[in-house]
Each structure stands twice: as C-alpha cells, then as structure tokens.
Amino acid sequence: MNRISKQFNEQGYLVLENFNTAASCDALMQRGKELASAYNFDGHPAVFQTSNQEETSNDYFLNSGNNISFFFEKDSFDENGQLKTDLFHSMNKIGHALHDLDPVFNAFSRSPQMKKLSEELDLDQYVIIQSMLILKHARVGGVVDIHQDATFLYTEPGSCIGFWFALEDATVENGCLWAKPGDHQTSLRTWFRRKANGGAETVVLNNEPFSMEGMIPLEVKKGTCIVLHGLLPHCSMPNTSGRSRQAYAIHTIDRRATYPAENWLHRNMDELKGF
Question: What pTM, to 2 d.p., does this model score?
C-alpha cells in the first residue's frame, strides 16, 4: 500500500494542495457562469439541500442525472415566488452530468493528475457517476448539513468516493468543509432513494446521530483537491463572508458494485466512464 492509499484508509480523506492550477479553476468558474447565463429559467425552481431533500425532489431533480441542471438556494425566493437577487447569485449548484456533457468540465474531471491519483488509489474499476459545480455565493451560500456521500450514491458493497476541488480559497468564514479524521470507520446512516409511487424518501439505516464533536475545518487554498470516503460524515457552514467559495465535486463508484434501481440518481451504467 502506498503512502496516499494508507493515509486515505486511515483518516477517510486526503488534502492534496496545488492539485489544479489557478487558471484551470478560473476556467471552470467562467464556464459555470456561461452555463448559468444560458439557462432559461421558467419560474419553477428546483431547490437542493442535504436535509429534507425528499420534500423538494421534483421530476426536474430526479431526472438531472443525465443532464446539466440548475438548483437554487432554499432562501432565494421571496413570499411572492420572485428571486431576491439575480439568477446566478440565487443558484446553489449546477449538476449532475457536467463531466460527461461539457468539454471544459470533462477535461477538468479527467485530467492527467486525476488519472495519476486514481491509479495511486487503485480506482481502475471506478467510474464517474455525477458532478456538480457548488457556488456557495457570498452571504447567501447556505449550510450543508452533516451527511455521508454514500447516502446519495448507495452501492452494495459500499464504494462511493468523492473528489472536492477548491476553485477558490475555502476558509471558516466562507464555508469550508468540516470533517473528523477517521470517522469514516462507521456505518451508513441513511439511504436517499426513489419511492415506488414517485418522488423520493430517506430511509434510516442507523439512527445514531451525527455530531460536530471532533470535526475540524478543512481550510484549503484554491487548487486543492480533497478526496472523501463515502462514509465520512462532513458538512459546511453558511457563507457569512463577502467572498464566494466555489468548488467542483465529482463522485465515483466501483463499476463492479451493485447499483440498486431505487437510487435517486439514474444513469446508464454501461455508458459510464472512468478517468
């Protein structure tokens, strides 16, 4: 086992500084703005939140696995259903097939350094199943509650691994990630999945509550890659600063694992590609 794999297995995450250049981060943020400006908002928004997501899981959300879709902050609208600010700064994220459908995001997701990292982590059988540009705008970027990525990308056996790229400096003030080293050595708490009669539900697998005790802030510089084990509980606080905290994330699963049809995210598994 190499040093990278050993560290990841022990603490459940890796922090890899200077993984991407500032220019490549800027290019991704610029492309995100271009995609948002071309979005034809029809007044029927999809809201994303890691808690109570079943309440806002409309068809637009559930069909986003094969598309480039746009999601809003839950507090973006006033009592009349109108946006409080401009379209781009009302958005929470853009996802979930950016890595397959957009050439700029594809190149970033399947860069030479990602290929090398996947080899170091022995992920030759892994495929990228979803991606998202997380906007976390200044003063409006909302909280991301403590969660495990495997909740949303359930496989048997568990195999989810996430890659989180800091496109801007991430600090406590603007909502950096928080995690507890070694806390991935736990069980999956919930499974977010589709219901047979439509919509989605969160199934409790283990009702042991999450806790912030022992969690540390992962303050990182622009260009850093954070690798996250699918069982590692992590979160981020609201962005209360005057600076945005954009990030890009891709999630991967082992192509050999069983991916249940009940999973909320539907992709043609035979068409998924690795790094």
Answer: 0.94
